[in-house]
Amino acid sequence: MSAVVQSAAATDVEENLTDGFNLIIDALKLNGLNTIYGVPGIPITDFGRMAQAAGIRVLSFRHEQNAGYAASIAGFLTKKPGVCLTVSAPGFLNGLTALAHATTNCFPMILISGSSEREIVDLQQGDYEEMDQLAIAKPLCKAAFRVLHAADIGIGLARAIRAAVSGRPGGVYLDLPAKLFGQVMNADAGKKSLVKVIDAAPAQIPSPDSIKRALDVLKSAKKPLIILGKGAAYAQADDALRAFVEKTGAPFLPMSMAKGILPDTHPQCAGAARSTVLKDSDVVMLIGARLNWLLSHGKGKTWGDAPKKFIQIDIEPKEMDSNVEIVAPVVGDIGSCVSALLNGMDAKWPAAPADWVGAVKTKRDDNVAKMAPKLMNNNVPMDYHGALGVLRTIVKERPDAILVNEGANTLDLARGIIDMYQPRKRIDVGTWGIMGIGMGYAIAAAIETGKPVLCVEGDSAFGFSGMEVETICRYKLPVCIVIFNNDGIYRGTDVNASGSGDPAPTVFVKGARYDKMMEAFGGVGVNATSPDELKRAVNAAMDSGKPTLINAVLDPAAGSESGRIGNLNPQSKLKKK
Ligand code: ADP
Ligand code: TZD
Ligand code: MG
User: Fold this and answer.
1) What whole-number distance in Å separates Cα of residue 215 and Cα of residue 280?
2) Rounded to the nearest whole angstrom, what is the distance from the C-alpha of residue 367 to the centroid of ligand 2?
3) Are 168 and 280 in the same domain?
4) Which ligand approaches the C-alpha of residue 294 most closely?
5) What residues pair up with 82 in beta bridges, in sequence order?
6) Which one of 59, 236, 309, 366 is most buried, counting C-beta atoms within 10 A?
7) Distance (Å) of CA 452 to CA 280, 290, 446, 466, 477
């Protein structure tokens, strides 16, 4: 209900009034947007307070980028746009990275930012935190809107919601100049101006022809492969996806945030035979995954010489043929597309050829067996495998916990080693391979799902959002952060070739105790030097639900440059000796 301001007009006639503050709050609540991630300040300080008083959950962060990442992953986890609230110019810019990230990753998010007065900004007269924010946001998001009149707040938010969640989801910018918040209007007219968005992301039904074409190509396959991407996780069509994959009998490969839609231990999972299935498959069906760098653009050495046919299911028609020819494009939402495919497969649908399925299974079992002893080592100092072996078991025992993961070696090895068992339980660096998502993701995951969160963080990765441990302690969130502390980026062993006395660019303070940071804010800090210690500390944290940070001391020499993507890192052949 709108808080009503009473005003005694000169005429002595009392009118019920509302204002921009109240209308924005009412519009958010009307559309079920009940959580805001942000940082307060001019002109939104009072807005945050009032929103909280009105029952919206307001999570106040230490830096807007982290609040923005929180909003972006809230969008991924819930299919509703995550809302981030920032102050003008610098706060807005801090949030913008996350907005661009949301757009790149196809997560629905709305960045709402206060801004300075139009009249002054447009004449460039030097207002407090002056910046033409709308113009700057536009190229970095799916849509950008500005509201100048209180009466347009309802429409403005409705447009933002639709733009964020319909079609391919993405980031939307909503610019609210300071004056708007205090603008007063008649309360009844204000109430009527609000819009409850109906069917914000309408089902997009694929054409029957496209379904038939896709099934014909799939049926012709001798070596089919299904690749599940994070769009498939986002779609929340878990039962239909599982039924479809099982009906085909084909090996499936989950992209990192699609792990767990079907468990990584499923007999058809080809995660541990990735190179084999990419090289040797003859028909590849992409479901909510793009053929970008993460899949070597669908060509080159990774994909082998044998000719391949691609089928692609995606809500975005322009995604088709972006990197290679798609012989069977299926455009629609994944739930509708997969249901239509299932309907088109009769009882006699042939299972994937047994020789192919068998070959993939053999490769996978071999690779798993080769890895097993490494994961059981109790070396001190720890290596990645010893530490990850422990975490792998913990996730197996606690399959509903959410795993947040970032770093280089810490990311690449954890992704391969830690099996996931449920959909949308693994959230990580995403399409950009971005560092800094860690604490924002952890906070949103805890808030949006109420589940315990385990963060597996490189020491460098953690540094990008580390101050938010205070936020985690303040809101008493069930987050356990494990820092793989190898004294630096990739390794802690680099030396400065100049001998100037400065450390090399990739190394940090040796023997740093990140656990003390957590203690500073009343959380639990643990220094773990062996896999056994690590296991005890993580289990205690997951049992207690207390904010915990475990400094896992790793061998500084254990990692490799850029983790698994060293090939993307140019190296000078002309280095000085
Ligand atoms: P990954 O990184 O896991 O490979 P990408 O982010 O590259 O995944 O691809 C996700 C794809 O999923 C995008 O092309 C996006 O358009 C698509 N997508 C997102 N939501 C849906 C949906 N509900 N239905 C169909 N496609 C979707
Ligand atoms: N800045 C941002 C925003 N994203 C990035 N990906 C990078 C910088 C470059 N970068 C990586 O790609 S991984 C990484 C950086 C700085 C950190 C790797 O070190 P780590 O992990 O300690 O997190 P490991 O286990 O030591 O490899
Ligand atoms: Mg490191």
Assistant:
1) 20
2) 27
3) no
4) 1
5) 109
6) 59
7) 39, 30, 6, 19, 8
Phi-psi region of 496 (alpha: psi -120 to 50; beta: other; left: phi over 0): beta
Q: Is the pTM of this model over 0.90?
A: yes
Q: Are residues 475 and 500 in the same domain?
A: yes
CATH number of the domain residue 279 falls in: 3.40.50.1220
Q: For ligand 2, atom 20, which residue shows the shortest CA distance?
A: 458
Q: How far is CA 127 from the centre of its chain?
A: 35
Is there a single domain that holds both residue 279 and residue 402? no
Write phi, then psi, for 75 (nearest 5 degrees).
-60, -45
Take residue 189 and report the two structure tokens written for it: 């007219």
Given 193, 228, 249, which residue is the final one in a domain?
Answer: 193
Block means of pLDDT (10 residues each) for the chain, 577 residues, are 49 84 98 98 96 98 98 99 98 98 98 96 94 98 98 98 98 98 98 98 98 98 98 98 98 98 98 97 98 97 94 98 98 98 95 97 97 95 98 98 98 98 98 98 98 98 98 98 98 94 97 98 98 98 98 97 88 77
Q: Coil, strand or helix: which one is 158?
A: helix
Count of all residues that appear for the chain in the document = 577
Is 409 within a domain? yes
Q: Is 424 helix (H, G, I), strand (E, B) or coil?
A: coil
User: Which CATH number does the domain housing residue 531 bear?
Assistant: 3.40.50.970
Asked if the structure places residue 508 within a domain, the reply is yes
Q: Is residue 285 part of a domain?
A: yes
Q: Are residues 282 and 241 in the same domain?
A: yes
Count the domains in the chain.
3
Residue 516: C-alpha distances to residues 107, 130, 391, 523 (Å): 34, 39, 22, 9
Q: Is the dihedral of CA 204, 209, 214, 219 positive or negative?
A: positive
Q: Tell how far the Cα of 433 is from the centroid of ligand 2, in angstroms.
A: 8
Q: By residue range, what is the domain housing residue 324?
A: 208-362
Residue identifier of the C-alpha nearest atom 18 of ligand 1: 231
Instruction: Please give the Cα distance from 70 to 249 (Å, whole number).
Output: 37
Extended strands (E) in 33-131: 35-38, 57-60, 82-86, 109-115
Angstrom distance (rounded) from CA 303 to CA 321: 16
CA distance 56 to 25: 8
C-alpha count within 13 angstroms, C-beta hemisphere, residue 452: 21
CA–centroid distance, 430 to ligand 1, in Å, is 12
Which residue from 106, 238, 330 has its CB within 8 A of the most atoms of ligand 1, so it is best to mutate?
A: 106
